[in-house]
């Protein structure tokens, strides 16, 4: 399984109404730290398979979802479980740190 591109229009269906936990990465093409964590998130999406969905929201093309979540800087990561935010963090981190954060939160 790979990361899922989520838009303003699909945010509720893909994230809030998901039957599995969802990690949402708010990012932009021009963001260096976002590009740093991109490959790690792709790997984690494969490793978690159907247990955790990893969604990516491009803030330039989908400003409403980012605004609704109060995103002020990117990358901004949120974990949703049963439609609610259970954890969030900002900034880039190594894959191992991201993985332990996800494991602790779900």
UniProtKB/TrEMBL annotation:
Gene3D superfamilies: Glutaredoxin. The record marks 25 as: Deprotonates C-terminal active site Cys. InterPro entries: Thioredoxin, Thioredoxin-like_sf, Thioredoxin_CS, Thioredoxin_domain. Signal peptide: none annotated. Transmembrane segments: none annotated. GO terms for biological process: cell redox homeostasis. It comes from the Bacteria. GO terms for cellular component: cytosol. It holds the Pfam family Thioredoxin. This is Thioredoxin.
């Amino acid at each position: 399984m790979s990361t899922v591109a989520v838009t303003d229009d699909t945010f509720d269906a893909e994230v809030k109404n998901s039957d599995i936990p969802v990690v949402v990465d708010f990012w932009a093409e021009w963001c260096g730290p976002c590009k740093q964590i991109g490959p790690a998130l792709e790997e984690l999406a494969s490793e978690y398979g159907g247990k955790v969905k990893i969604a990516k929201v491009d803030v330039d093309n989908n400003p409403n979802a980012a605004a609704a979540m109060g995103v002020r800087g990117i990358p901004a990561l949120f974990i949703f479980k049963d439609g609610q935010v259970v954890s969030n963090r900002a900034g880039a981190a190594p894959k191992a740190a991201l993985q332990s954060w996800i494991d602790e939160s779900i």
